[in-house]
Amino acid sequence: MAKLIMTDTKKIKKILRLLNRVYGKPERFKSEAPMDVLIRTILSQNTSDTNSDKAFAVLKANFKSWDALLKSNTKMISRLIRSAGLSNIKAKRLKDALSEIRRREGRIGLSRLKNFEIDVSLNYLRSLNGVGPKTAACVLLFGFGMPVMPVDTHIFRVTKRLGLIEKDIKVEEAHNVLSRKVPADLIYDFHLGIIEHGRRTCRAQNPRCGICVLYGLCMFKKKEYYRKKGEKS
Ligand code: SF4
């Protein structure tokens, strides 16, 4: 067992070195208040960063605090965040989350989570309406700097192809497995590096295996097929 963990750790470090060589060391986001990360991540569900960033900027411009957003009309919020898609659902999720946090904390803020164990913080966030494992992990990683791996569609696909998680694993379990396997100090860079690789090279359709620096480390059965396909096109 110890040997297996060691092998995965070495592989993860090698993957990260290779990704950094191709894409450069990922630029870290400016650190954000945990509440902002929560709102931003709820808006980002099922849409692109461009669309959700636009909606987040509109909310920031229209409300001087998250308290003000909580007091406002759900329909109006929905109109303001239209660019993020699913705006009726997301407006309700935002209000539900803010209202529940206010009820639990007596104010809108998540600073108390920094004193909790990671699992307790994850459960706290997961129990809010509309907050799944990825959103909860984003709040802890980007809002508090805790070593938790958010697993989005790119991370799920690429780490599966690389053999870091089982083929039939559920996305929820993938959060736990990757948070354990990736060394704590590398989670942030690994998260960003794999997303970049998923967007640019290890795409869902027609992955560019022929130019992939991770080819030798990859367990994807069809990698040779896609390598040859790339040579022909
Ligand atoms: S070899 Fe292909 S499937 Fe494997 S990581 Fe690279 S692009 Fe993805």
Keywords, separated by commas or semicolons:
233 residues, mainly alpha, Endonuclease Iii, domain 2, Endonuclease III, domain 1, 12 helices, 62% helix, binds iron/sulfur cluster
What topology emerges from the helices and strands here?
Layout: H1 2-23, H2 34-44, H3 49-62, H4 66-71, H5 74-80, H6 87-105, H7 118-126, H8 133-144, H9 153-161, H10 171-181, H11 187-200, H12 223-232
The protein binds iron/sulfur cluster.
Give a structural overview.
- With 233 residues, this protein is mainly alpha-helical.
- The chain has two domains: 2-27 and 150-228, Helix-hairpin-Helix base-excision DNA repair enzymes (C-terminal) (Endonuclease Iii, domain 2, Orthogonal Bundle); 35-144, Hypothetical protein, domain 2 (Endonuclease III, domain 1).
- The protein is 62% helix and 0% strand.
- The mean pLDDT is 93.
- Iron/sulfur cluster (SF4) binds at residues 161-162, 201-202, 207-209, 212, 214-215, 218, 220, 223, 226.
Question: How would you summarize what this structure contains?
Answer:
The protein has helices at 2-23, 34-44, 49-62, 66-71, 74-80, 87-105, 118-126, 133-144, 153-161, 171-181, 187-200, 223-232. By secondary structure, it is mainly alpha-helical.
